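Example with several molecule types.
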Amino acid sequence: MTKWVRWTAPVAMVMSVTSPACAVQYLTIAQAQKLAFPSATGFVEQQSGRVWKAQNGNSAIGLFVFDRVIGKHLYIDYAVALDLSGKVRRVDILQYRESYGGEVRDASWLAQFVGKTSGSALQVDRDIRNISGATLSSHHVTEGVKKILALYGNQVR
Amino acid sequence: METKSGSMRLARPLLGTFVEIAVEDAALPETEAAMERAFAAIARVHRLMSFHDPDSDISRLNREASAGAVAVDRWTYQVLESAVDLHRRSTGLFDIAVAPVLQVMGLLPNPGDDPSPASISTRADEAIELLAAHRVQFRYPGVRIDLGGIAKGFAVDRAVDVLRSCGLERGLVSAGGDLAVFGPRPQTVFIRDPRDPRRLMGSVEAKNEAVASTGARFDPFLGADALGVSVIDPRTREPARTASGVAVRAPSCMIADALTKVVMIAGESAAALLEHYRASAVLVLANGEVRITADWQGAVSLAA
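Resulting structure tokens for the full complex:
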């Protein structure tokens, strides 16, 4: 029979533990471009740092749009690849960051997990990655994709 | 993409949240195609089981199944079977027919038709009839179901299946924090403090299993304040008050996902159900006390 065990550390102690910022770099813009348009031979910038035309030789094969949503505690870089018919071919998150201020890089907090992974000291951005809990809504990105589709959907060719 | 030598991690907006897939065989030429297929499996679950998409199996059932049998995809049928089974075994605490209450509370959209008092009092085991050939019928008018408490976990399991069948050896699939890991070595999974999503409560070493959590909802776009609990106690039709958060570890992510809802409502009395599903849990009670099932001892390292 499963038994419950009371975990006795004072709640105040739990509450004093602040998580590190969760930041993940998934893809650079160049990597995302290549994944979205593997057959492209080049990407011609249409709007600086934001819109590229994917080309195979001299023919356009699609549009790559970079965007960012910024909230109070988070920013998300993402990219939308549109095909020639103006349809969304792929949406990738390029970078995701939740930030919660200075104490998040507290070495003593991180130290308690040392030995729990490969034995080496943990680095916030490298090692705190697999986090269970608090489902985050992707609503803002979905809205962004719709906006990009409305803005550029008929401009791909 | 190349975050560590040989590893690859991608994220996409799916299932209303961020779905992340990480694998450690990035050097293989088929890795990228395998990840693509895994995302496609998740997109398929999204298409089939979304409450919001008018063309999903769930929307079709909610519109038509009170009037007659509706054929659904085998995946949808499989999740419905598990949901009905969980409903029975949890003595009604896991209830996919609680959708009308969520609509009244504004937690699910209402496509214009106000749920009738009759539909608010229906229950999954008596309301849903699973027929042969993947057909489903509702026994009462006004029944509305929502797989929000179980489909995300199912999607994660399907993605893991794809990655494994493509020959990948080690990886992780996470749908907004409901995750499963696979591979020969354990992976560290951190658990958010359900009372404050800015904090982590501890970590667990997971191997070929899933960890799912439920607690306060929050939106870091707007701020760090919790927006309340979205698990509804089907007995009272009100938000669960026993616990402020729960993390469940189980062999499958679908079961872990669904059991978080039961433990949120039943608290410590969910012990037998956890055992039946070979699952275990960390439970943060409403009064701030933290309980763990005995089998998490030694496996979980709680921050202190």
